[in-house]
Amino acid sequence: MGATETAEPMVSSARKPYRLVSRDFHPDNSVVRVGNVAFGGDKVIVMSGPCAVESREQVMTSAEFMQRVGVPVMRGGAYKPRTSPYSFQGMGVEGLEMLAEARERFGVLIVTEAVDHESLARVAQWADIVQIGARNMQNFELLKAVGQINKPVLLKRGLAATIDEWLMAAEYVAAHGNLNIVLCERGIRTYETKTRNTLDISAVPVVKQLSHLPVVIDPSHAAGQWQWVEPLALAGIAAGADGLIIETHPNPAEALSDGPQSLNFRHFEELMEKIGRVARALGREV
Amino acid sequence: MGATETAEPMVSSARKPYRLVSRDFHPDNSVVRVGNVAFGGDKVIVMSGPCAVESREQVMTSAEFMQRVGVPVMRGGAYKPRTSPYSFQGMGVEGLEMLAEARERFGVLIVTEAVDHESLARVAQWADIVQIGARNMQNFELLKAVGQINKPVLLKRGLAATIDEWLMAAEYVAAHGNLNIVLCERGIRTYETKTRNTLDISAVPVVKQLSHLPVVIDPSHAAGQWQWVEPLALAGIAAGADGLIIETHPNPAEALSDGPQSLNFRHFEELMEKIGRVARALGREV
Amino acid sequence: MGATETAEPMVSSARKPYRLVSRDFHPDNSVVRVGNVAFGGDKVIVMSGPCAVESREQVMTSAEFMQRVGVPVMRGGAYKPRTSPYSFQGMGVEGLEMLAEARERFGVLIVTEAVDHESLARVAQWADIVQIGARNMQNFELLKAVGQINKPVLLKRGLAATIDEWLMAAEYVAAHGNLNIVLCERGIRTYETKTRNTLDISAVPVVKQLSHLPVVIDPSHAAGQWQWVEPLALAGIAAGADGLIIETHPNPAEALSDGPQSLNFRHFEELMEKIGRVARALGREV
Amino acid sequence: MGATETAEPMVSSARKPYRLVSRDFHPDNSVVRVGNVAFGGDKVIVMSGPCAVESREQVMTSAEFMQRVGVPVMRGGAYKPRTSPYSFQGMGVEGLEMLAEARERFGVLIVTEAVDHESLARVAQWADIVQIGARNMQNFELLKAVGQINKPVLLKRGLAATIDEWLMAAEYVAAHGNLNIVLCERGIRTYETKTRNTLDISAVPVVKQLSHLPVVIDPSHAAGQWQWVEPLALAGIAAGADGLIIETHPNPAEALSDGPQSLNFRHFEELMEKIGRVARALGREV
To answer: What angle, 0 to 180 degrees and rounded to 10, lies between the N-to-C axes of helices D265-281 and C265-281?
Structure first.
């Protein structure tokens, strides 16, 4: 779908710049299905795993744990956008292969990030859900390319993106052909420095009013400290989020990235139990 | 307790500038008691009522409703800090008298705002809890005076106050003699304009780690729109807040201030029911 | 002038909430005169002096220097709003007396801050210009009182105040009877932490478009580091500010407050010379 | 230069994460030369032209004007990163060809934006300076590719990037082989909505202290309104910027993008005259 064809209807709707992703266009909630998982339905979907794929053992240990505690989707980055050129940049294709092996052995779906056209082609081939990270939320050429693949997209909100800009980034994906979009609030940049970012919990009801797309919460990147991940995760569910993506690590102290904000397996299991209780209190399941 | 006496120990603790309100000073949670209500204990305390006292009928109707639905504390402003000098500035003493009458007739405790030394003297005489609003969080002369009264204080976070500055404002009150302080997160100023403010839900666990004081959430001023008050209130409870302060109005469409963010009585009752369910799911009562 | 009388005209002008301070009300620039100084005219007015009055010697040394280099207005705080209750809170009346003596001996005008009704009464008696600090910009009861004195007011922008809120704070002063207002941009709170605040240099032309009031720049509180005061001061003049207020100290290393952002006398003299050059390049004098 | 080789020295310098772009590494100012232009020397370099290339006539008219008023570098976007997928996305290769023709005919150097690997290859071939826009400042794959071309780079600061993140983005370019980097401050995102962004004028002296790279100011994107471009441009020069990039248009009212913030030719000429006066007042030339 090209810009020319769709440009016209926008003229009469300056105040609501998005069209395909807006609730006006599709009044019911969209349900994004992948494998036996459905984002946007009655169930709260939990995704978890390490920040980065670091080794075969780390990935298999994580995937086995996810299978055991009933987490249907595992995360793990093979291509890592890092602030410093001198930081670990990810294992690339080798990492993707490990994730694919974990899927085969433990039956977890895989969500992992693409950072350019080349990695997108590979991620779209190996993974179940393609993640577009916060720093690429307005990498419009990448968004156009994501619009042309037939895998669901997890679209993170940019570090300082307005809700309108975030929905407009989703509109780029949609306008180029892919409406299987799950939005992910991961904290925004504010003046407060205690937390890594400020989780904009209000984004959940605001986005649900404006758009039909499912919304999940990433409490790990918002908090920056594992001790605060649990309250933010529970707050996300209470606010109506359709799911969570939470960083865990078999041994957070040795993680190559995001160790301080990663839960160990014991804390994650305790959190899962509480997520279930809050979800059920509000009429949902996990 | 004067500044001179307490100044010395600070020298050795530059990183933690607060002392009396810090968890190091008092490792257990503080419980702030007023009447038969205890902030910081097992129960989640709900406070509600109109933004401003507008008329005797409005106040009595509100108080009767609060009594009926089991809300132990009623809010209502008699002194209103308004952005414009041309906006309704509150009913003053007349409003305080109405609130006092409502307490007598319906058994609700009263929380209301003081804006300077003069109104503080009156509020401290008539009300059960003295509120210091966001715009006065660094009105240090007022904080010193609040330290010298023997009523509990509801200390709202400033519009763009860091958590450290907020705790330091509490330290002003404490250092001048009053440790009965309840902190209130009401949304901070960010670049996002969909909501009136951005509820910093992370402030709940962060403050609870740094301080022993109870923390409540004001979802109404954060949201700015009544439709988003419910998800934010539930998120607050899920994140571990000790209570909520929620704007309601017998007829929001006719409110003199904050109408758009005020719940009507029917929506508030539905919310109360859900608050109870989330609280119980996490082992607390309302 | 009461709220009732002035409220009516506002109804038809919801988009421009200020009236008396708006350029619509008074199309020409206002000139605020005090002694032989005129803010808002052809001359750029430089104010300087220490953050806080610390001793008689410090004040007299500063005033003598100001006289020598031709700075017509000296600053110096006798009442200090400090984030911590354990920090130096100012010398109070004793400090005001020192400032008054300096005025007599060295012919400098005095600007100093008031923080509540009591200090306002004293400052209005002893000083030439009353400063309302950033933390009290929405202390509306103080603004109302400032509206009733007959001394010029230096109204600093709040830490996170919008330009509209700042002009509305000025409107409080004006609506209560005092139109001798000089606005002061001193940096706003943003996510950037290298500087103490972010100088909003754009505020100069924006305010000048919206309002007839003079605007000055405080580069010291914006920068937080003396090395950056010079470029910000020059930028302020280039952007069209009517003046500057700059912290200096006879010995910055020993200052009781704001030492790191205070210029020593030698650097200040160098800056004065450059201020003159930039001002003259744009057709103004110092 | 690969990540592995350079990673080691970083270990001992956690506080200063950048290396090649830091002033510690290169104490003198870097001078970035292109044609007969030198960024970072005594001369202030002015770049100007339309936001987007719209037509052959618009480009030639602009280039002729730049030649006439002595502007050595013309801007003009052929690839436009737009918030909406339905907005004009630029003329692509056809636009680049027009820019190249303008260079031939009118002797102006060309700066234009690249948005992905494909456009980078073309821009690097046709243009004199490659611009990386604010939204791509942390598109690390693009930065790595820019590090491998031998054209100077104009690296805009991200919408909400800290100064450290911005310098780290420059470090990506440098670490991959290209040290011909000119930094561009174009306003950051804050809570203030009067201006499109908040020009962080302090960034000029802060960056000059931390890094040896030249810094220029984009007053047009900061202001969002042409009336405020002049004061911000002059402030930039007064603060020590090495240059300016300013949007102009033969007919701003008909511009396909950024019309409201574009100067017409008459206003730009007036501004050039004032830029010269401020620059000379501070010992520089234009």
So the answer is: 150
